[in-house]
Structures are given as structure tokens and as C-alpha cells.
Please model this.
Amino acid sequence: MTITITAFERSPDGGAGLARDTRVRWALEEVGQSYEVRLVSFEAMKQPAHLALHPFGQIPTYEEDDLALFETGSIVFHIAERHEGLLPDDANARARAVTWMFAALNTVEPTILELATARLLESDKPWHQERLPLVQDRVRTRLSQLSARLGNADWLDGAFSAGDLMMASVLLRLASSGILNEFPNLAAYVARGEARPAYKRAFAAQLAINAGKTPAG
Amino acid sequence: MTITITAFERSPDGGAGLARDTRVRWALEEVGQSYEVRLVSFEAMKQPAHLALHPFGQIPTYEEDDLALFETGSIVFHIAERHEGLLPDDANARARAVTWMFAALNTVEPTILELATARLLESDKPWHQERLPLVQDRVRTRLSQLSARLGNADWLDGAFSAGDLMMASVLLRLASSGILNEFPNLAAYVARGEARPAYKRAFAAQLAINAGKTPAG
Model:
């Protein structure tokens, strides 16, 4: 079985690990599955060949024999379902781990995406400075709820799972904002994720592609 | 097996079907599974008893014997995994259907949530009128890509699946905006979803709770 994922030829973050291929790399490293990477330029991402793999013209995609997937949540779930190490064996615990994957992607990440959008696409607008605190407070509301649930635990529900991989990946997007550090248990949670050998290998692999290249965009 | 879900005691949309319990009801109706509903007030949603079920203080939740789940994507997936009717048998087709669930929730819905947020929380701000077209255009970008992929097909990947249930539910949030009608094949896609007997039963069930009540908020 050969697994091929796609990644940015030149990541917009210059290798800071925030491009979504890092999430897939991390999952593959956790389960000890080797993979190949095909780099895609911004021009190629909008061409029919890539759109056939990813209708929204993004990375990563995932190809394995005659299966082609897009959408990070789906790819990580597929990896977690087929290999040991990212989902518990007990059916109920497994369903709860999947719940945290969806919570990361549909409840926590949208507020973080909105903050990123404000910074990337609206920083030149006359309303930006006045609006930014509203957007930041929406992020804080979610982090406050997540922080209360996590408490003093290492991970969200028992052992590390694909749910933690996804939640930590989503929270990593906040690293440069300072907001994460307002919630020490969440900052420590993310640091625990980053300290995992599998994360370190994933991070190093994406950095190796982007090192020495000027960030795009 | 008794299934109990939670729903708003008084839905903010007055029964228009946009509260997320409708998605879970629809899934349960598609697979022919009966369920009970516990209504929750806005006050109760923020109390410890409900937060133990749903750390973000929202509805719906899902209880089945000793399993408790939150997050609509996870609940619908759990139902789809354990009953016939919402996921194909073929493993690859199944992975692709799950991909569309994640795409609905993490790629399409965030732009729609941002539009809803602008309308609900920022309509009194001085920037609202000038900013709204930017937010609408982000929705259009996603719909345009989705429309191109759907083409003339009835559903996103072969037969109706949990992926279509989730995508149609997400797009339904745009009904009042007029944007959906700019993409006739997507409007028809959503209408096909609404025409399904299971959707009609789900819609009627949530309307019965909210009929005659003044919309909250």
C-alpha cells in the first residue's frame, strides 16, 4: 500500500506547521505508516487535475491504492480507523474520541478561522481594530469552555486519541495570538501534543520542504 | 435501547428547522430509529448538569444506554455507523461519504456561520453594511466550488448518504439569504433533501415543539 498526500509547494506560513498537511503527517507518524508527498503550487491547486482530487482546491489530499480522499478530518479518521494507536478499542470510548474530532473542527476551529480571516483578509479595513476584540472574545468563549472540560487531565478523554490530535492542531493556530496562553491548561495541552515524537517528526518533515523558501502570500 | 436527544425548549428560529437537533432527528428518521426528546431551556444549557453532557453548552446531545455524545457530526456518524441507510457498504465509498460530512462541517459551514454571526451579532455595528458583501463572497466561493463538483448529480457521491444529510443541512442555513438560489443545482439539491420523507418527519417533529411559541432571542 502506497500512501500519497499533497502539501503546499510553498506553505503560506513558511513551515510553521500550520498548513493542514501537518495534521495528516502527524496521524501517519502516530500509527507508523510511511507516506509520500506530492507538492502542489498555488496555480496547480486551481487546475482540473487537483480539483478532481479536492473540489475546494486545497491541500492536503490522500491517495491510497484506488481510494482518494480530501478534508483533513476525514483523512485523519480514515488513518485512525485502519491502524492501531489513534482510537480506543472500546466502542463507546471510540465514539467519544470521534466526538472530539468533530468538536475541534466544527465548534472550536470556526471561531479561530474567523480570527485568522480577520487578520489575513480584513486587516486593511477601517473596522479592523474595533472589530478584532469581538472576534477574539468569541475564541475566548470556546477556549474557556474547553479549558473547563479539560481541567487537569492530560487529554480530553482518557488516552491520547485522534480527537486530541485534531484539537491540539486547531489550537496551534492560536500560537501567535497570545490568546492560548490565557488558558494555561490548554497551552500545556498543546505543548504535550507538540512534545510527542510523532508530532516532532511531522513538523520536521513539513519544515524540511519549506526551509529556505520565502513564505508565500 | 432508548435514545434520548436534547433540543431547545424554545428554538431561536421558532421552528424553522435550523436548530441542530433537526440534523440528528433527520438521521434517526432515515434509519427508522425512534427516539425521545428532552427539552432544555437557555438557562439549563449553561448549568453543570447539561455541561456534563455538552461542554460547549449547546444542543443537541445524544444518550443511548451508557453512551453520551455531543456534536452533531459525531452523533450523525454514530447513527450512520450503527444502522443501515446512511453509509454505503463499500469501504471506499463509505470513506468518501464521511469526507463529505467533514467537508460540510469544516469547509462549507464555517463561511455560513460567519455570515450568520455578522447578521446576528454585528448588524448594529457601523461596519456591518460595508463588510457584509465580503462575508457573502466567501460563502459564494465555497458554493461555487461545491456547485461545480455536484454538477447534474442528485447527490454528492452516488446514493444519498450521511454526507448529503449534513451538506444539505448546512446549506439550509442559507435559505433566507438568497445566496443559495444563485446556484440552481445546489438549491435543487437542498430541495431534494427536504423532499425526503425522513426529513419531513424530522422537520414536523421539531416544529411541533416550537409551534405557537414566540421565537426566542
In short: Chain A touches chain B through 45 residues (CB under 8 Å). The domain at 91-196 of chain A is CATH 1.20.1050.10 (Glutathione S-transferase Yfyf (Class Pi); Chain A, domain 2).
